[in-house]
Amino acid sequence: MDTIFALASAQGKAGVAVIRLSGPQAHAAAGALTGSDLPPRGMRLRELHASDGSRLDDGLVLTFAAPASFTGEDVTELQIHGSTASVNAVLRCLSDMKDLRMAEPGEFTRRALENGKMDLAQVEGLADLIDAETEAQRKQAQTILAGELGDLAERWRRDLIRAASLLEAVIDFADEEVPTDVSPEVRELITGVMGDLEREARGVKIAERIRTGFEVAIVGLPNAGKSTLLNALAGREAAITSEYAGTTRDVIEVRMDLAGLPVTLLDTAGLRETEDHVEGLGIALARKRAETADLRVFLTDDPTELGVEMQPGDVQVLPKSDLRGSGENGISGKTGQGIDQLISQISRVLSDRTTSTGIATRERHRVAMTKALDALSQAMTVLESGPDLYDIAAEELRTAIRALESLVGRIDVENLLDEIFSSFCLGK
Ligand SMILES: Nc1nc2c(ncn2[C@@H]2O[C@H](COP(=O)(O)OP(=O)(O)OP(=O)(O)O)[C@@H](O)[C@H]2O)c(=O)[nH]1
Ligand SMILES: [Mg+2]
Fold it and tell me: What is the CATH number of the domain that holds 54?
């Protein structure tokens, strides 16, 4: 195994930078920089020197001994001053050392996975956590990173293995008197898992939105003040505004944190009949994006005049409230009137939707769970036919178990068979 190293903190100027080393030479290499042996685990403040003895920097040197480290290997972390030049000087020294090489992207985490420090879902959770920009994303990533999906998958797997072993036992008793009817327990185990899987699979769509962001489209007639509203919400001049109807043509996207939820606001072309070819293209695009958005803000007195269907949860606000005096649902991008209410209304609708999320967060998870569900419903159907077809039902259960194991990246059929047989309990 190579010893790898890389800057673990972000590129650029900072108070402190962290350089991480992992592999058999991780401690020795840091020892060469400090000119002294390091304890296998612990923290020391040391001077770091280049091979010609010149001083590089001083910093904290943290050592972790395998397997109690992030990667499961010997690991050293160097906390040095976070200037580009200091970091480069230390990285250059490390590159010159024998048996050391720069890590590839994700290589530390990959080693953590290979050494059983995390499962595949946790690796995904870690990636999400590093990408998290809003509170909802952070919380969701933490759940996965903590291994909750793996725990859940393990529970389902245990239940299905128990169901499969009950069936196997009956198959083995085929020539003899069957001591008990196992089908009620098998059915109960399968339906329990199916209920969980259905709920989790349903929640993935919203969980994906938390990862990637909700789209909220502002629609209205030309000149209604959509771009002005977008700018007010974004707090900057993201879109051009003008008194000419038909100013906005492309869809303008602004990413923002709306009460902890990641939202991409879409400003769109004003919707009307037009002879202008280019404006017409913009309007067609506006309709398409508005229809597929997660939520629409209708900036209009009459939502039916836009040719975009209002969907449950959509919001209607009345344009240019500053010109019409006070009234319900009025909004003004110009004066800011009604903006806070709009933000809280949008975030309320979206937060309500996020309550239906479970623990699974990705399309990959949904695909695996759907595959398991298909196999389980097959198994339920086959069970109807009685013990003669129990071997087929057991095979379907194994298919479901394999699909669930792929959730956490553990697909080892031998291991599965061992467990099936070790959990034998019916008169054997
Ligand atoms: N009084 C008042 N004027 C506004 C308000 N919002 C926008 N305006 C003015 O209305 C005109 C059109 O505003 P835009 O934000 O460009 O309107 P739009 O809906 O994006 O228009 P299109 O892009 O052409 O569809 C501009 O002159 C704005 O200054 C508002 O709340 N109150
Ligand atoms: Mg506009």
Answer: 3.30.1360.120
